[in-house]
Write a structure and sequence with these properties.
Layout (H helix, E strand, L loop, with lengths): L10 E6 L3 H11 L5 E7 L2 H11 L3 E5 L5 H10 L5 E7 L3 H10 L3 E4 L4 H12 L7 H22 L4 H11 L4 H8 L3 H15 L4 H5 L6 H12 L1
Parallel strand pairs: 1-2, 1-3, 3-4, 4-5
Helix pairs in contact: 2-3, 4-6, 7-9, 8-9
Length: 228
């Protein structure tokens, strides 16, 4: 990266990978690049959330083979930590890459990429550039064009956590049930509900649930919850 005067800046990086040798190998390889500074590493979601919150790196590299890797990516985006997430060791399968993008990853590096490829991707996403192949870019555009109003209103407006809460509302779940399912507190659920109602420009949970057409199964569940 560079500042407004054009001076070169170092990109700070945090690595999340379950396998220690893998994690330390990545850190050691990146240490040879003068434009990248590895500020920390860890092996799991819980430690990563705390460390990333403290260190605020420019880029977080998440090994997709790590347990709860997609959930960790969502955590980072939901907490608005202003970090770019690079999904690492992803197979060149459109559905897998789209899943990473929907979780909040800014870019990805495939499992057969070189260190030079990784460094280039780190620098590009730190500059807010799109990091994906033409094939994946085409798939992203197809997803957007097919999503219509739902993509526009939910994927762009609501955070990942708010979308999860909205999905639970559509299933007729009460706040306590949502809290248990998402492993968060009831007050946090209430805050998410308040924010998503405001963003969808509605005043009730029923209006939020009806904002996008429900499946018949979810409609019956929601009706039973609201009339019972």
């Amino acid at each position: 990266m560079s500042d407004y005067s054009g001076r070169s800046l170092i990109t700070s990086v945090f690595i999340v990978a379950a396998v220690r040798l893998y994690r330390e190998g990545l850190a050691g390889s990146l240490a040879t690049c003068p434009r990248v500074s590895v500020v920390g590493t860890c092996a799991n979601r819980a430690d990563a959330r705390e460390r990333v919150r403290q260190l605020r790196p420019d880029v977080v590299i998440v090994d997709i083979a790590t347990r709860d890797s997609l959930e960790l990516i969502r955590d980072i985006q939901d907490e608005a930590l202003q970090c770019n997430v690079l999904a690492f060791a992803v197979d060149e399968i459109p559905s897998d890459i789209i899943e990473c993008a929907e979780a909040g990853a800014t870019g990805y590096v495939t499992s057969d990429a070189s260190i030079d490829d990784l460094v280039t991707s780190i620098e590009r996403i730190a500059r807010a550039e799109l990091v994906c192949s033409p094939q994946i870019a085409g798939e992203l555009f197809r997803r957007i064009s097919q999503g219509g109003e739902r993509w526009s209103s939910e994927r762009k407006t609501l955070t990942t956590r708010e979308r999860q809460v909205l999905d639970c509302i559509r299933q007729g779940k009460a706040n306590k049930e949502i809290a248990q399912k998402l492993n968060i507190s009831e007050p946090t659920v209430k805050n998410h509900v308040h924010h998503l109602l405001k963003k969808l420009d509605v005043t009730t949970r029923a209006q939020a649930a009806a904002h996008v057409p429900l499946s018949s199964r979810h409609r019956r569940a929601f009706s039973a919850r609201t009339t019972g």
